[in-house]
């Protein structure tokens, strides 16, 4: 596995700010919020760690929470990928109006391009989940996902649904989220038409439209009803993309609602669109780090396309708001019962009392401690109302559940508002040293015992009665108090409680609850633990709460248990405690390409990291295909302390007489148990942390490939890819040339120079030294340029030796037909014969960012097209320039070579060998 953190350190220094960990609640609260129909957002927000956004603290944070307390509006927004979302709209609704908003992103973006690193597929999905949930903190929304995977670009929904196995998996998960979140309004980013572009976008719009009605039909996905979910009919359905992208002008007949996201909110200190952009900028792998938006008018436009309400449009066909026609006031909850309101005659009057308490708190919001008194009274009234409604016999189950869901949400919001008003901060710290790096931060292992300190500071002038200080732990975990019980907390004082926690031997590891057996081809994720289905990640295992009372009114504050470490700037940071296996096992490299017939030793490295204290001796071994030799058969290793890493080398002699796919597996035996998985810490200074697990398996592709002798290849990395390692594996002499060394490097040492993917997009030294690269070609060298994404800058930069125009043309179907246009060209014969079979077995896509026009001095070598489209010939162009050869390719070799696709390996070697000489 690539060293993820190292790749990010230099890039992320400008973003070296720390934000709060995910607001996950305990298992109990999580399940309760789902079953009872309450939004999980506020319940989960109660379990925050340190460092919320500044806008969510103090008087501003209190006033934002009071907006939430004033409304029962719930809005659900659907998109296809991370960064598709309308952040300005969600920020306006959530923070500006106080609506409870949920963002459902169908997939995690795992099939996309990584703009700042070489990690792809499922580890990229983990990263993008972290990025999106950090954006969500700015939007003020809760996040959900479905099982469908991003398998790469597709041009139509038919291909998307074919990869996803039809409509059912995605539709079932959208319906599940609707039935748990129970929104009033459903808002789709996409329409489900060609206007949406990407096939995933179109599929998102199609499925959301289907889900609007399906969620209310108990015959749809009846297994969910058996689980305890109830049908739910959202009242209105809108879609976006009705006007030109990013335009503030829209034909009146095209939209129903126009939302002013360019309005400045004094609590945020900027407009809703700007605040959303602050969040979006954390999606660096999408290239969003440099994005910005000016102050001034900005609008989002949406069209109402389905509704179960009487007409709500004015004479011009417009509405003022998504919730026109829906009473979202607190007393309006009584009205939602219709004629059954008569069965609870006290309800409306009690809800008016709750609303009055919120109104009184708003009047004192600029002096937060003064707002605590009405908030406590509101909490008392709301809590009593929950108890009373819970005992009602006359209401239908669906009515009672819906009403209680809202009331429980208000209770959680009241508690959060009270904590803000009183300035309470709760910390839950694991007793472990501050780690020097994120990778070394303390992780619990099964069977371990460790200490936890819970501290609550009371900066208010109110004495508190402490009812309970407790840890919220998964089933099987045990905690015992090691300090005296605290029953009161005076103003200006701090409560401190100590615990000893025992992790059970069968504790779950902190890992994704989903997986794909083959990330390169699978279009659906398998959910390994249905309890967490649709969540971004499983919740942290360690949380705590303090129950206190003021004026004899009971409330609560929560936090996640954390460990400490130093980030790349040396600042102390905190992240949620995680559980890891006693040993993490990995293999290096994780993929290997071996030429047919080669019997030379291959060194395979195995890495074992200990999570156990003390000195422990284990046995490590490799297993290889039948007929292959592994030396030595096993090795004994001793790991002396927690975090120690031991590297072991094995010599593998392949027996590879034919092309094929094979596996080499690493394992560690300790005290009768075998460990064969390893994890990678996925983090960045501006993000939270999670862990990507994969089996310690090396995928071996045996390829019938010939390589030229004495060819020296210089590889200049762009955004990052794994091609150089594959080239070395097949026997080529490859040197990595740092971009900043181009100016001083003697390029005449090389026969071929390769520019990595998106080189001109990401490396200014390549742009600066482009003339030197072309001079290298003119002197007799071969320059291979791989795809670029910044079409405008590439075209205006005139980086090619002859005029050529880059486009966004691509072939997304990996099985799309490929035509060899110049079969007699030397590239198709030296040193390997290239036939149509070279294009068998490609993964994810054929290529992207093809040239659309070029000078006659270029020769197109291949043509390909997606079904029903015209042939594209600009994916592989070659031109003689001076004494050398210039090549541009948009074909996706960056995916094919690491996947060990035989034909792609052979063709790429031929491209490297395209010069008049195989050595210089």
Would you give an account of this structure?
Among the domains are: 57-310, LmbE-like (Rossmann fold), CATH 3.40.50.10320; 583-702, Immunoglobulin-like; 705-912, Rossmann fold (3-Layer(aba) Sandwich). The protein contains 22 helices and 43 strands. The radius of gyration is 30 Å and the shape is globular. The chain is an alpha+beta fold and 920 residues long. It starts with a helix and ends in an 8-residue tail after the last helix. Strands 10, 11, 12, 13, 14, 15, 18, 19 and 20 form a 9-stranded mixed β-sheet that branches. The protein has a 7-stranded mixed β-sheet with strand order 3-2-1-4-5-9-6, sandwiched between helices. A 7-stranded mixed β-sheet has the order 34-33-35-36-43-42-40, with helices on both faces. The longest helix has 26 residues, at 397-422.
Helix content range of the residues, please? 25-40%
- Rg of Cα set: 30 Å
Task: Bin the strand percentage.
Answer: 25-35%
What spatial form do the alpha-carbon principal axes imply? globular
- The chain-level mean pLDDT equals 92
What's a concise summary of this model?
The chain is α+β, with helices and mostly antiparallel strands and 920 residues long.
